[in-house]
Structure to design on (274 residues):
């Protein structure tokens, strides 16, 4: 038995939920925020401007040609149509990159999680802490992007204020699944699988045009994409065209979040606590 495993075994009885939690996810969040403010704030800032540039380019440029889009019987300016989609994409990108590249380095090179689990922290604390960091980033993006949308006159409903918690939910769902995915990766080359998944979702999740332009078989496939549910959820709130499907979209992300947290916690326990 290694020294690390002996220390973990000695600490485990102090944790709750079968050794899964020390009840101190706050410490993981605090450490992450300090690291972000000292090293990564420019990366965070750049992630905000990417969807804004898309909005100016597509919403104003292409929107001047297209005009309006029909959304469940309501006519919506093209800029107001793609803006909520870009907000959902921004939440996805921020959460995925936080929970994959950052987590991969901490997991395989920085050995940060191994060190954390030698304290009273448990796998559940680490999972919740890292996912919370990703959703905080999503929340910052949501507030900033909504201000841009309001300035451009693209917010069509007072329900748009609910887009902030909706974006946080989207970020949490993607972060939990991203971290679960990363826990199985061993090499940097395997990270190249991410664009193969994210790019099709970005292009085909009704981001730039309605899903109805596709054949029915393709529509069914697109509706399985997690990003499509996020795009539709945010679009409902910012345009005010709300249907009962909103509960399906919310439920989809709640399931994503639950599955991700469970998988990550079990993977960390299996990897470092035996």
């Amino acid at each position: 038995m290694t020294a690390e495993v002996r220390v973990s075994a000695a600490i485990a009885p102090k944790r709750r939920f079968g050794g899964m939690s020390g009840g101190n996810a706050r410490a993981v969040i605090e450490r992450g925020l300090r690291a972000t403010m000292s090293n990564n704030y420019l990366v965070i800032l750049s992630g905000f401007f990417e969807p804004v540039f898309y909005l100016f380019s597509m919403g104003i440029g292409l929107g001047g040609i297209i005009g309006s889009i029909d959304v469940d019987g309501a006519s919506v300016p093209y800029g107001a149509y793609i803006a909520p989609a870009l907000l959902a994409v921004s939440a996805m990108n921020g959460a995925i990159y936080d929970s994959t590249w950052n987590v991969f380095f901490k997991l395989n090179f920085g050995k940060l999680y191994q060190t954390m689990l030698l304290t009273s922290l448990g796998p559940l604390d680490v999972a919740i802490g890292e996912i919370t960091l990703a959703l905080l980033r999503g929340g910052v993006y949501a507030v900033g992007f909504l201000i841009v949308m309001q300035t451009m006159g693209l917010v069509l409903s007072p329900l748009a204020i609910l887009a902030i918690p909706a974006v946080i939910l989207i970020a949490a769902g993607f972060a939990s699944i991203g971290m679960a995915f990363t826990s199985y990766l061993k090499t940097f080359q395997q990270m190249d699988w991410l664009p193969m998944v994210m790019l099709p979702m970005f292009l085909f999740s009704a981001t730039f045009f309605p899903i109805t332009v596709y054949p029915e078989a393709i529509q069914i496939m697109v509706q399985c994409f997690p990003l499509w549910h996020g795009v539709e959820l945010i679009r409902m709130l910012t345009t005010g065209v709300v249907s009962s499907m909103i509960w399906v979209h919310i439920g989809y992300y709640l399931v994503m979040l639950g599955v991700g947290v469970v998988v990550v916690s079990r993977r960390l326990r299996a990897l470092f606590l035996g």
Q: What stands out?
A: Confidence is low (pLDDT under 50) at residues 1-13.
